[in-house]
Amino acid sequence: MTLTAFQRDVLAASPDAFGDDWSLVLVIRKVSDGPVLLEESVTDADLNEARSEAWLNGFLRQGHRDLPLEAVTTRIAPLFKDDRCIGFALQAQAPRTTASGGTPSVYTFGVTCLAPVAQRAASRLLADGRLKEDDTYVYELQARTGPTPVEQTPEHPGIKITTRIIPLRFGMRPLGPLLAAARTVGDIKDDVLPVVFTEAAHERSSMFARRGAGDTPAVETGSILLGELCACPDTAELFVTVDEAIEVVDAEQKEFSLIPSSKSWTRVQAVLDRLTGTGADGARRLVGISHGHNFGVEGDPCALCATAKECGRTTVFVSAADRTFMRTVFAGQPFALCWIAGTNARGDEVATLYTLQAGVLQARGYHVVESFPITDSPRTT
Predict the structure, then answer these.
(1) Whole-number CA gyration radius for the chain
(2) pTM score
(3) What pLDDT, in 10s, does the model give residues 213-242?
(4) I need a surface site. Which of 47, 208, 211, 354 has the fewest CB within 10 A?
(5) Among 318, 319, 312, which Cα is nearest to 297's?
(6) Structural domains present in the chain
(7) Least confident stretch, 25-34, 81-90, 200-209, 372-381
(8) Sequence-ordered list of residues with C-beta below 8 angstroms from that of 171, at least 6 positions apart, any chain
């Protein structure tokens, strides 16, 4: 039985699954049947990506674009198979006073979306010597009764923090004509948020991402992607457009990481303000990042390279640094894009776009058009 099918069976058979308070814990071991090295609680903050993805698919993409993420309440319930916790279900509901209130949405997530929690635990084990740099480890998910813990923020005398919720702004563009004029890159899934690049932005993304391949040793380089979060007036479907790529300069460039500096972000913001023209009233925004894994594939091509249609050994993958960057810079933005360029074992250039799916950055296809037609439709909703 597949995980997806099992999750549906569990939810269908357990209508009261969300009636109890549950907390999740990751148990870290060196091997699956070895002694427990550490138990790491899954906090409320660790569920932010799952929560934001449920908000995107359950509300924003259903036409409820005025609903902020903060207004959505969530509950979790564990998913079991053969007495083993294999993931969790998340129930999301809007206030009953809103147009989208009343009926909750339910989404399921596997254990892999909690990998950052395991990495956090492993970092502590490395620090106290219970794990070494070359060690491997395994983690399993356990569910226990009790509320999900909330991370405590240290208090600093004299510092007062005020949060302000800024509503999302949307460009209004018909999606059908764009897709009819577009070429596709990769496999397009019907249930995934559409993404449309212009040819110029696509070329600039690749150029900046691969620029570091010419350094000795090669380093990561890349760009910040600008565009709009758009709504189709005909279908209410949301989609992301990308029409500009701003090179990340004045950054810390290493072989396996690219860390923009304050000067980098200042430059990006200046360019964004100039391109938007209308300042904070426009729908233009940062929609993601492109970067290159320019370090090359280790080892010689395998025997299959001469006959295989595609080479599966590439430098294109979502690294731990990539996950941290996306979770930090694009927190609460489940539509954010991560475009990664690299090479395969044959030396061919390859690239893949990743977006959040089931709580994990996963490969997906996208569309490329020559340019976006000018529209006089309202810019905000």
Answers:
(1) 22
(2) 0.86
(3) 888 888 889 999 999 999 999 999 999 999
(4) 211
(5) 312
(6) 3-145 (no CATH), 171-369 (3.40.140.10)
(7) 372-381
(8) 228, 229, 230, 231, 241, 283, 375, 377, 379
